[in-house]
Task: inverse folding
């Protein structure tokens, strides 16, 4: 594999860098560089700026309103965004449901849903997991019963990330109990403003309400919101999961956070400690190896090969790296990383933090938050099972 970028790709990178640096609001990049709390306006504001430029749908082909970039161009774009301190694009619309709508939706569904996703106007949520149906996703029980030209949906989803902002949710619903569990699942798009939808926040270890429970109580959903065929939703769900897992790896954020770790280590004097520098070097080797894997997945996706096995590997490695840099930052800041001060996540916080740098105050929150990475998107244990099955048969 030739790893050098071509002069055209370098020129593309320069163009993206210049645009991102002049369009990314500095108050947002300040928050990202310092791991501070991002509001809905921060996340959606940046999405809309990208949407206006036509870059929110960075992985989409031109026929659906995307820029039609190559895998390398998309990678360079994401790297420039991450290094500049742009928030991660909330993936549920542009990265997850859109590829399913493009691959399996009708032309009417494509015209109806894709423009709002590409512009960043419409916030999507993911309704896969349920109480008791996480790793064993095929056991979902949320029921959709066809009555005339509608489905009546009853049940509960859980761990719905940022569902408090959701306007639409794509759901796996049970439409049949015949045969294997996988064969009775359908993929339904539900307007979250419909009567009977209730969203209830779940407070996590870091004090944030990042996830929710979503309840469906006799919710009426037009049958035209069904994607593809009834009872074939499992196929569409799997298509989406490989995109989700590749996205979670987030190698570009890892590169940015590695630099932040180095800054903290230098500020706290640990940079001079050979043993600590060895830890950073080990992490850096892993980040570079992850980047190579990402490039392989992207080129496999481009050539139409099934990359699900590698997507699982990416998810495992990327999530472990995220936890590792959060741990090393805590170690580097030493006792100043210990106080868990939720308010320190707020930009401009000037609270009482005797002896330490205010910039280190959010480290405990980040550390707690990163516990999620080996669970969501399919737990790492389950990813290892998938990789083992794929490789060993
Ligand atoms: C922060 C966060 C955000 C999330 N966001 C969303 C979202 O937006 N939408 C959504 O649909 N879901 C979301 N999820 C749910 C996530 O996909 C599930 O948590 C995940 O799939 C694990 O399922 P579970 O929590 O039910 O755990 P379980 O499946 O109950 O697993 C419990 C433990 O058992 C292990 N285990 C289970 N089965 C096996 C097996 N066969 N072999 C070995 N070990 C096994 C698991 O690894 C885990 O350690 C989110 C989760 C988190 C933590």
Result:
């Amino acid at each position: 594999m030739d790893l050098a970028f071509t002069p055209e790709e370098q020129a593309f990178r320069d163009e993206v860098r210049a645009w991102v640096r002049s369009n990314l609001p500095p108050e947002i990049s300040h928050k990202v560089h310092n791991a501070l709390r991002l509001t809905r306006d921060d996340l959606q504001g940046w999405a809309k700026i990208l949407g206006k430029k036509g870059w929110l749908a960075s992985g989409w082909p031109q026929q659906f309103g995307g820029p039609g970039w190559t895998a390398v161009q998309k990678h360079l774009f994401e790297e420039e965004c991450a290094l500049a301190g742009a928030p991660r694009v909330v993936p549920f619309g542009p990265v997850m449901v859109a590829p399913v709508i493009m691959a399996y939706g009708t032309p009417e569904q494509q015209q109806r849903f894709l423009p709002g996703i590409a512009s960043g106007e419409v916030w999507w949520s993911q309704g896969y997991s349920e109480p008791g149906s996480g790793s064993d996703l095929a056991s979902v029980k949320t029921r959709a019963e066809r009555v005339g030209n509608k489905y009546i949906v009853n049940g509960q989803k859980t761990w719905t990330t940022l569902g408090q902002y959701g306007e639409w949710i794509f759901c796996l619903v049970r439409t049949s109990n015949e045969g294997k569990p996988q064969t009775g699942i359908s993929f339904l798009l539900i307007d979250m403003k419909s009567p009977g939808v209730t969203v209830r926040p779940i407070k996590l270890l870091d004090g944030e309400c990042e996830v929710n429970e979503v309840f469906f109580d006799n919710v009426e959903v037009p049958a035209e919101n069904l994607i593809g065929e009834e009872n074939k939703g499992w196929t569409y769900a799997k298509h989406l999961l490989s995109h989700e897992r590749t996205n979670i790896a987030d190698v570009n954020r890892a590169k940015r956070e590695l630099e932040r770790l180095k800054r903290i280590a230098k500020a706290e004097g640990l940079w001079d400690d050979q043993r600590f520098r060895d830890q950073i070097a080990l992490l850096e080797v892993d980040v570079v190896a992850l980047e190579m894997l990402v490039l392989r997945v992207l080129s496999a996706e481009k050539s139409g090969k099934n990359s699900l096995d590698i997507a699982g590997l990416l998810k495992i490695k990327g999530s472990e790296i995220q936890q590792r840099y959060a741990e090393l930052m805590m170690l580097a800041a030493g006792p100043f990383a210990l106080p868990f001060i939720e308010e320190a996540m707020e930009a401009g916080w000037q609270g009482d933090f005797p002896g330490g740098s205010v910039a280190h105050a959010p480290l405990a929150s980040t550390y707690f938050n990163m516990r999620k990475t080996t669970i969501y998107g399919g737990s790492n244990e389950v990813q290892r099972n998938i990789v083992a099955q794929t490789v060993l048969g």
Observations:
- The first helix runs from residue 7 to 23.
- Residues 126-129, 134-135, 159-161, 211, 372, 375-379, 381-382, 385 surround flavin-adenine dinucleotide (CB under 6 Å).
- The CA atoms of residues 54 and 66 lie 7 Å apart.
- The chain has three domains: 7-88, 124-232, 250-392.
